[in-house]
Specification:
With about 190 residues, the protein is an alpha/beta fold. About 35% of the residues lie in helices and about 25% in strands. The protein has 6 helices and 7 strands; from the N terminus they run ααβαβαββαβαββ. The protein is globular and about 40 Å long.
C-alpha cells in the first residue's frame, strides 16, 4: 500500500478480504519484488501438500512476508530471523497486525545459524553468496525430506548456488526464473 490512508482502509476491510497486508515502510520488501512473489508461489504449492500444522523458518525475513504467509497457509510453528534490528521490529509489527502475533521473529546472522529442532519448510530469500555459504547450516535447520524454498539469486549465479545446496544434502533444485531472478525449491535428502 502506497500511503497510510490506504493501509488503514485495508486494515478495516481485513475481515472481508483474504490476504496479507504489508504497509510500505523501512524494512526491505512489500511482496511485490519477483523474488518474494516467486517464493510465495512456491510456498503455497508446497504447503498444499504438507500436513496441517507444519513448521517453517524464514531466513532473512525483512518485512516478515514469507513468515506471515507460512502461518496463513497453516504452519503451527513459525520462526523468522533477520540481521537488521529495524527489519525485526517491523516484521514483528506486521505479523501482529495480520493476526499472527505468535510468529517468533528474532535478530540473528544466517551465517551463524544454529537450530536445534528442524523445520518442515525453510524459506531463504537471501543474496546468492549468503545462500551458498550458509547451505550446510540451512540443511541442518531442515528436517529430512523437508523443503527449502530459496531466492535472491540472479540467473548467472544459480549454478553455483545449486551446487552448494546439493552438496549440503538437498535434491536438485526445481528452478523458476522470472526476468533476471531465480527462485527454487528442493527437499533435504532423507537421513
Amino acid at each position: 500500500f502506497s500511503d497510510q490512508q490506504s493501509w488503514r482502509d485495508a486494515k478495516r476491510e481485513r475481515s472481508r478480504a483474504a490476504g496479507i497486508f504489508i504497509p510500505a515502510g523501512m524494512a526491505f520488501g512489500t511482496g511485490e519484488h519477483v523474488t518474494t512473489a516467486t517464493c510465495l508461489r512456491l510456498l503455497a504449492d508446497i504447503a498444499a501438500d504438507l500436513l496441517p500444522n507444519f513448521s517453517a523458518l524464514d531466513l532473512g525475513t525483512g518485512a516478515g512476508i514469507l513468515a506471515i504467509a507460512a502461518k496463513a497457509l497453516g504452519a503451527a510453528r513459525v520462526e523468522a530471523v533477520d540481521y537488521d534490528p529495524i527489519a525485526v521490529r517491523i516484521a514483528r509489527h506486521n505479523a501482529s497486525v495480520n493476526g499472527f502475533p505468535t510468529v517468533r521473529i528474532s535478530q540473528g546472522d544466517v551465517l551463524k545459524l544454529n537450530v536445534r529442532k528442524g523445520y518442515d519448510v525453510v524459506l531463504a530469500n537471501l543474496f546468492s553468496d549468503v545462500l551458498a555459504k550458509a547451505a550446510s547450516r540451512i540443511a541442518r535447520a531442515t528436517k529430512p525430506n523437508g523443503w527449502l524454498v530459496f531466492s535472491g539469486v540472479l540467473r548467472g549465479q544459480m549454478g553455483d548456488v545449486s551446487d552448494a545446496i546439493q552438496a549440503a544434502g538437498f535434491t536438485r533444485p526445481r528452478v523458476v526464473a522470472r526476468g533476471k531472478w531465480c527462485a527454487a525449491s528442493c527437499q533435504r535428502d532423507p537421513d
